[in-house]
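During the no-cost extension, the postdoctoral fellow (Dr. R.K.) reprocessed legacy sequence entries with the updated structure-token encoder. One reprocessed record is reproduced below for audit purposes.
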Amino acid sequence: MMKIFRPFVLVLPFLLAFGSDVFSGSILSTSGIGLPLGFPDARSLGMGGVSIAQLDPLTLNRMNPASLNAVRNTRFSLQFLYESNAARDEAAEQTSRYFNFDGFSFFIPLHERIGIGMGLAPETRADYELEFSDALNSQDYEKIIRGKGGLNTWNFTLSARPLGYLRLGLTAAYFFGKTEETWRLDYDSADFASTQDVLSMHAHGMGAAAGAVFEPVEGVVRIGAIYRPVFRLKTQSDLVLRPGYSTSVSRSEEGDLDYPSLTGIGISGSPWKTVNLELDYIETGWNEFRVNGAFLEGTLKSRRYAFGAEFRADDNIYAPYWKRIAFRAGFSTAPVFVRDPSGNRMRETWISFGLGMPLMEDQAHMDAALQFGRRGSLERNGMEESLIRLHMTLTGGEKWFSRKY
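Re-encoded structure tokens follow.
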């Protein structure tokens, strides 16, 4: 990437965000290639995001490919996300809302010990708008910075159970996406020409991840692990300058981007028949994120802790409907992947509640998760975000490859 692009991608947008008069979206998505997402399924999110040691025949696990072997029928799921973000800094306050399709998953058990799957999910999201008012030579102007885009992943998964107490999984992922940032300068006076600059970056490449679930006591204790190494994406960056007084100028260059590693371990236990408890620890090396060899300033290694509980539903189809609903709750906390402009760490904390509901006489299933979260602190970091998220996953399934006589 040309040196002229680096301030846009690495540092300047994040610093400017704290001095804006008006903003929307998430301030933190101005950094890097957007705010990290990587949401698991709604069942897991209702339990604080725990999923590494999860084994559920009704759920298509996004985090640990080894867990998919617990699914006995061909299943397909769709996920949706609604988010409200009340963000504020020392200069302004703004509430933004976001609703979108959040990916799909598909899994086919080929045999009781092996299956294959695929899925599409967002990985990062850039979504912000900043406005500044100032004057140059006594001429008032307004500067507007808008960002959008992010990374997505196509996942192809193999999940197997070589031993009765051990499940293994391998995922090959194709990462692709685009971020675009527009800088516009509008003068109040007709004697000054307005300008607009657009920086865009396309990225694509392959990554891989592996997972395992060890079940020393079937149905009682499970231990899971996941690992994703650092991998490199190819990038193409384009800068288009549109000064109001002359012809547009464009520049383009190819480069690369190092996406960080991820390591996680989880434990799940059922001390009682109707209660399931899970605990996850995930470490993401955002300090490894680089664009053409340049580290993203202020990034750090993120260590996330999550705990969740589920009160299981009655699996008797003749039981009253409310008894067939699973109730969930959870908690998670982690440092934000980048420091504030003063070098202080920021923390992200979530409280979650969830439901699991059978549909269509158990032919389908719906999971819902409601999360309340906070990022940063106005007193310590100069900014904070109060968030509400609603996740919904709809899953249906049927048996394929069954022998008929």
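The CA atoms of residues 197 and 241 lie 5 Å apart. The first helix runs from residue 6 to 17. The remaining legacy entries will be reprocessed before the final report is submitted.
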